[in-house]
Amino acid sequence: MKFSLGPSLFFWPKNQVEEFYQQAKHSDADIIYLGETVCSKRRELKAKDWLALAKSLASETNKQIVISTMTLLESPAELQVMKRLCENGELLVEANDLSAVQMMAEQKLPFVVGPAINCYNLATLKVLLKQGMMRWVMPVELSGDWLKQLLIEAEQDNIRDKFEVEVFSWGYMPLAYSARCFTARSENRPKDDCQYCCINYPQGRRMNSREGERVFVLNGIQTMSGYQYNLINEIPAMQQMGVDIARISPDSEQALQKITAFRAQLEQAKNYPLDGQEECNGYWHKIAGMSVV
User: Fold this and answer.
1) Residues 235-280 pLDDT 10s
2) What 3-state DSSP class applies to 246?
3) Nearest CA among 224, 247, 216, 218 for reference residue 234
4) 213 domain-assigned
5) CA end-to-end span of the chain, whole Å?
6) 105: part of which helix (H) or strand (E)?
7) Which residues pair with 230 in a beta bridge?
8) Which of 37, 60, 135, 242 qualifies as a FRET site for 178, CA 20 to 30 Å off?
9) Does residue 181 sit within a domain?
10) pLDDT tens digits, residue range 125-147?
11) Which CATH number does the domain housing residue 265 bear?
């Protein structure tokens, strides 16, 4: 079983991003994803900067480096940026939108299907395999039982060995995307004059219910879970059912330490008590996503 560092979903200053990936280079991650997946207005690093950073990491480490595309595309300019990433010529691409899938299929190149693409059944997996999918990241809201059944069906259909399975295992879950920027709205700014205010919230902006319960984290146009998803106790079961990769989603340098702890689970299978005020694992257990088992 391998462990990946997912693309950073938050807006950080360029020097912080570069420093983070220099540390990630020496982490226990087997795979490193990087690139802007949330908002094209986040231009601390442009497409050429992300590609240069990714190629630099690829040349300096034996880890697999993957460039991730945007999830919600709203303009021809964003399509052009995605086209540039898909045609980089060296790096594996994580497609987070079906237009990226089409671009990779036209080039007859393998790609990763990101968690934002709605793939819930065997029929959809088979379509994506024909397009060139070599790895599938399960949508975050699906359960362990659902995944287990789907992998059994894939085995019965003799396609299980044709793709890797990756599961989002730690971090704030990306739940939804909107053309409206919630972070800008929270500061009474129009989206077209947001002044890039989400850079002031390096772990997103927390949103509580009227009862004071943390419900969501607002991250620009992205709505995330209010609690951090944590499947560290499920690692042995995930390995047994055939999950190939567990993804750690970075919100800070703490994510690099989490990769080490998750990897240790393969040997020690320690039972970690989860903090119900900060963490959740409900989706995996087919209950309310905010809940903890």
Assistant:
1) 999 999 999 999 999 998 889 999 999 999 999 989 999 998 899 9
2) strand
3) 247
4) no
5) 23
6) helix 98-106
7) 170
8) 135
9) no
10) 999 999 999 999 999 999 999 99
11) 3.20.20.70
